[in-house]
Amino acid sequence: MTAFELSKEHEDFRSVVREFATEQIAPHAAQWDREHRFPVELVPQMGDLGLFGLVVPEEYGGAGGDFTSLCVAIEELGRVDQSIGITLSAGVGLGINPILSYGTDEQKQRWLPDLVAGRALAAFGLTEPDAGSDAGASRTKARLEGDGESAEWVVDGAKAFITNSGTDITSVVTVTARTGTLDDGRPEISAILVPSGTPGFTVEPAYEKLGWHASDTHGLSFDGARVPADHLLGARGAGFKQFLKTLDDGRIAISALAVGLAQACLEASTEYAKTRTAFGRPIGVNQGVSFQVADLAVSVEAARMLTYKAAWLKDLHHEGQRSVAEVKQAAAIAKLYSTEAAVNATRIATQIFGGNGFMEEYPVARFYRDAKILEIGEGTSEVQRMVIARGLGLPS
Which residue ranges run through the membrane (predicted)? Predict the structure, then answer.
């Protein structure tokens, strides 16, 4: 392709995922939300469809596909249920990708096949109670004890708001931790794989959240949790660069999730404006309503274009045709615009639905609750503006 347009293969794939989402997710989304229940039984079905292995090479059970295909899948899942959309987004972007990008062949062979098949989930432990956007302020520590084959990392600390970290099939969490001090006085940050069930590793009770009720989210604590020295992911001290790269990719995925939500709001608002009557005629004849729906259509189209441009650049970078800086800038722009557009879309949709929009029997109420986190996770809107400004060459 010479431009960031979706191929016929991408659109055919979209149809497959949309059918799955419509038949297997949409009928149950409201109930899962009410019950605050993570539908673990859905994960193997998503694995069977190949969703977790889209960007994973065939040697580890994946399809060896492009990042754009992953964004298509996340958008379509997010169109019917944001909780399931983020399960895929985090499962691949934060669970699989760090192992795929930085793991040894032994680590990949151990963890990836089950993750790709949907038999297991992995999580990424970055955020802490006192270290969110300022990830360099991490207080979790890991010290290396022993020598040779008996050497172990001993992890102490806590993580917060970690997706897919406490399910019955969560197999491993990649944890960023201070492993020393650099020559310039900054902390040395490394990434360490901590398997579920490791003594000293505790998954805290699930959070009571505003939205994403069917997504699995927990705090994690580490009290002398010991893992073998070969559980270091990538080079010692490379953790900071690793998670920055991981977040760049994750921002494009969250942008796709936001596009799915905005698209759902557009579809719901359009249908409601056609069928809801007031004063003897459909409310859509009123410009106060029709203009808002038109604005929704514009924002959805713009968000989608920015998202798939970023995904296209990401795929070109993988082929060596675009720079890291180009992808980083495009990812931040897409994430900033799309997530704020999604939040605004839910506000507009709820307003168009009027009193019904405030009732949980209508999906726009769930959309409204689910939207806000999009502007926070994977880097807040404020962080995206910082990244964009630096990308323009403004002083930091």
Answer: none
